[in-house]
Amino acid sequence: MLTDIEIANSVPLKPIKEVAAQLGIEEEHLSLYGNYKAKIDANQLESLKDRPNGKLILVTAISPTPAGEGKTTTSVGLVDALSALGKKAIIALREPSLGPVFGIKGGAAGGGRAQVVPMEDINLHFTGDFHAIGIANNLLAALIDNHIHHGNALGIDSRRITWKRVVDMNDRQLRHIVDGLQGKVNGVPREDGFDITVASEIMAILCLSENILDLKERLNRIIIGYSFSGEPITAGDLKAGGAMAAVLKDAIHPNLVQTLEHNPAIIHGGPFANIAHGCNSVLATKLALKYADYTVTEAGFGADLGAEKFIDIKCRMSGLKPDAVVLVATIRALKMHGGVSKQDLGQENVPAVVEGLTNLDKHLENIQEVYGLPVVVAINKFPLDTEAELAAVYAACEKRQVDVVISDVWANGGAGGKDLAEKVIELSSKDNHFQFVYEDSDSILTKIEKIVTKVYGGRAVKLTPAAQRELKELENLGFSNLPICMAKTQYSFSDQAKALGAPKDFTVTISKLKVSAGAGFIVALTGDIMTMPGLPKTPASERIDIDAEGNITGLF
Question: Whole-model pTM?
Answer without folding.
Answer: 0.95
